[in-house]
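Structure tokens please, single chain.
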Amino acid sequence: MKDDNLPMVPPQAGREIAEGSLARVREAYEHFAEAGEMALNAFETSLAQSFDGWRSVMGSSRETAHQLSDSNVAGARKMREQWDAVGARLYNAFEDNAGHTMAAMREIGHRMLIASDTNVRASLDFAERLTKAADAREVAALHVTFMQEQSRRLTDQMVDLHQTTSRLAREAAARTETP
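Here you go.
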């Protein structure tokens, strides 16, 4: 089905248009990837600041408990010591778990970003090869090759992600089993 109302574009001009568009898409993706990395870094910084804030709240609560119990008799002092011991254990356990959880989330997020970046770059490279194809037969061959490579790439990425999450889950389970 042919539409005679569309202007005729010479093949060389069509390639130049496609190559120019692809260059702009690649540049836009680079900016997007940079912005994503900056957002991830900002998230990690924000979370670290939240933990610092929690630490200071815990510290001020301990000081308040110290001041109140110092004004009471020996029983209150014993209670304060128990409070300190329990609070310290709870805080240390929380901080330890939070640190491990953040490290695991960071590792999974990093692997996901690498995988998505690899896939986008492979798609852009494929599009670039398509713009240089001589005829429909070469386009079809490039498409088959890309689909095979992409299938292998996705399989490898899923295996890597599965192995990573399994390892992190085993490490978390081992930490909870150890007193």
